[in-house]
Amino acid sequence: MQDEVNEDRSGDAEELLKRALLDAASAVSVSLRIDGLPVSEAVTVIFYARRDLGTLQTYLTPGSRGAGASVSPAELLRVPCDLDLADAADRGEAQRLYAEQARTLRDAVLGADVVLELWREALLELLGKVVIRTSVELPARSPLPRLMPTALVAPESGVVVTPVCNARTLAAGQPPVGIACIQQEVAHVYPLAEDPEGCVIDFMERSSRHARDLADQIAHQEASVERFLELSDAA
Asked: Is residue 86 in some structural domain?
């Protein structure tokens, strides 16, 4: 199944120049729909290759996109887990490697979304209301690349939870995946297999320690300024 990824034609002068330098005819995209997810419901993986640039990249977009669907760049989340078919001896071997590696990514996404549902239950129990956000944009900076365009947001505490991964080719097997917990300047990545409730408690303790340390730092700085001003007044 092939889906064309259309670029937005309303870009600025730099984007227009970039388009003029690229051969759109050399781009090929192949999509893989993953439905029935407990939190995300559905996402679509897009493997996007450009012969003129020598790139083969992986993107995820929310929803189930069919053949011929139009996807804007703003809807694409770059995921650094790319296909590696270089060792294929022929077309048949390349098809086999593609199927294996696509399944590897699918399994990683399925596993992360199942765990995200457990985190949703833990957040509801400990922090109250939880909002599911399916978007490429994240209301906080992630400490690692995101695996999926899905996040859990606890509005009252400002805690954001999203699946993340380490960069590696899919030929190396399933990428290391974790759950990032973020609150303003505090972020921590927990292994996928850890107990979500215990992780939420641990993270809130980390956040509280950070707040106390920051308050102590500010108080120390203010005291230093006061002493300096006293020296200036005495002079």
From this structure: yes
The pTM is what? 0.78
For residue 216, is it within any domain? Answer: no
Please, what is the Cα angle at 134 between 153 and 38, to 5 degrees? 85
Give me Rg for the CA atoms of the chain: 23
- In this structure, what token pair is assigned to residue 105? 């990514």
pLDDT in tens, 8-41: 433 444 444 343 344 455 677 888 999 999 999 9
Burial bucket for residue 66 (CB in 10 Å: 0-12, 13-18, 19+): exposed
Give the mean model confidence (pLDDT) for residues 217-231.
Answer: 74
Residues spanned by the domain of 196: 13-209
Q: How far is CA 159 from CA 15, 41, 59, 203, 221, in A?
A: 35, 22, 25, 9, 28
In the numeric block, which tokens belong to residue 8? 């937005």
Tokens of 23: 């051969």
Check residue 7 and give its pLDDT: 38
Please give the pLDDT value at position 2. 41
Position 223 in a domain: no
Average pLDDT, the chain: 85
Using CB atoms within 10 A of its CB, is residue 1 exposed (0-12), middle (13-18) or buried (19+)?
exposed
Domains in the chain: how many in total?
Answer: 1
Cβ–Cβ contacts within 10 Å for residue 24, how many?
A: 11
* Residue 232 in domain: no
